[in-house]
Write a sequence for this structure.
């Protein structure tokens, strides 16, 4: 089926509607519009865009937040769902996001629910989003659900931005260290090697190894680049496999310095998602199932799903989650208070705030620790090369001085 962009007059409201319809031909598209009570004005096949455009354009978190907030505002103002979505299409600047919204409009006009229409785009709308939409549709509080979704998206984006920011600095410093080492190996060491060749002396093992490595890199730099490129590619592919994902998740939870950061991140994500889902009316078991996936860590998800199985058997959530691995002690304590007061969602929100604040402090602490640590690493690498270069000269001077005496 093809996609056709159309403008048509609504026979009931006499307003001009612009959207997209899927059909086998332009004639079939016109028939579909007429059957919906629309008088076609223009119908054109949708342009796909060139390859570069399709590769470079993507839907950002900001696009999704703007879409969600706009839809909530329009529905709260009393606009019909289809009209609200058509209004958003006209305001959306991202072509990819516009296409997604147009597909949703087509699906809704075809008789599907909003939740089912969103579910056709899992790469844009995750399970948390879909669960909140469906809960809002059932309870008649769709505008409130959409606002909660937007808040959730903004908090997730803000948290991840802080974590990425903490990781960027050491990554940049490591790149600088690598660049300095490569520069010394291909520029300085070969010149020193020529000097040592003229002396006709045996070089110490460290210096000889350094010179041999430098010669190999200089002569076979293309092979080094190919091997490095393949290594990076296959490592990235490995990280996409099930075992690779588990490897990366285990590193995040157990590696020194960063493990505290990621554990707080996962606890903040779990409790914030749980609060949002429960406050919108999502059942407890569904909340645990969806929250387990939303934390984006295999081992934390296993702990949450294990608690879910116990809750299915009638165990209280606070007891079910208490002895699970990687679940912080504060969470079952606060959930127990929530069970007694009947407001588990509020308690989860309070816990989320605690871990979000602790995460900010952890990021600041890591930045403070990593800076001098990386300076030491840089000094060790650069200093090691310098020592290897100067050691034969020092030995030669020592021997010469001894002969003079």
């Amino acid at each position: 089926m093809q996609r056709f962009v159309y403008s048509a007059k609504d026979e009931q409201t006499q307003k001009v509607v612009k959207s997209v319809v899927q059909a086998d031909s332009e004639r079939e598209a016109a028939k579909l519009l007429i059957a919906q009570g629309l008088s076609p004005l223009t119908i054109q096949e949708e342009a796909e865009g060139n390859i570069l455009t399709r590769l470079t354009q993507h839907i950002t978190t900001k696009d999704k937040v703007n879409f969600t907030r706009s839809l909530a505002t329009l529905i709260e103002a009393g606009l019909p769902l289809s009209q609200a979505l058509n209004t958003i299409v006209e305001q959306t600047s991202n072509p990819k996001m516009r296409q997604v919204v147009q597909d949703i409009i087509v699906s809704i006009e075809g008789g599907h629910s909003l939740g089912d229409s969103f579910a056709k785009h899992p790469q844009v709308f995750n399970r948390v989003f879909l669960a909140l939409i469906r809960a809002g549709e059932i309870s008649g509080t769709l505008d409130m659900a959409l606002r909660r979704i937007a808040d959730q998206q903004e908090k997730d984006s803000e948290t991840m931005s802080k974590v990425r920011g903490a990781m960027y600095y050491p990554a940049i410093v490591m790149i600088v260290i690598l660049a300095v080492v490569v520069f010394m190996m291909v520029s300085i060491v070969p010149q020193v090697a020529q000097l040592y060749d003229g002396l006709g002396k045996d070089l110490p093992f460290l210096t000889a190894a350094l010179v041999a490595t430098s010669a190999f890199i200089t002569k076979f730099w293309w092979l080094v680049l190919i091997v490095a490129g393949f290594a990076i590619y296959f490592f990235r592919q490995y990280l996409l496999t099930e075992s690779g994902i588990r490897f990366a998740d285990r590193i995040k939870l157990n590696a020194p310095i960063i493990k505290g950061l990621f554990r707080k991140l996962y606890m903040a994500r779990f409790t914030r998602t749980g609060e949002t889902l429960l406050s919108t009316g999502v059942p407890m078991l569904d909340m645990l199932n969806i929250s387990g996936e939303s934390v984006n860590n295999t081992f934390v998800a296993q702990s949450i799903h294990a608690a879910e199985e116990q809750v299915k058997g009638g165990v209280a959530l606070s007891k079910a989650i208490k002895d699970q691995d990687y679940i912080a002690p504060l969470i079952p304590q606060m959930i127990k208070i929530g069970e007694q007061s009947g407001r588990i969602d509020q308690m989860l929100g309070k816990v989320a705030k605690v871990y979000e604040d602790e995460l900010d402090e952890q990021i600041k602490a890591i930045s403070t620790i990593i800076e001098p640590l990386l300076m030491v690493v840089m000094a060790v690498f650069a200093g090691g090369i310098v020592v290897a270069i100067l050691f034969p000269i020092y030995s030669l001077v020592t021997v010469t001085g001894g002969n003079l005496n």
Remarks:
- The chain has a mean pLDDT of 81.
- The longest helix spans residues 344-404.
- The radius of gyration is 30 Å.
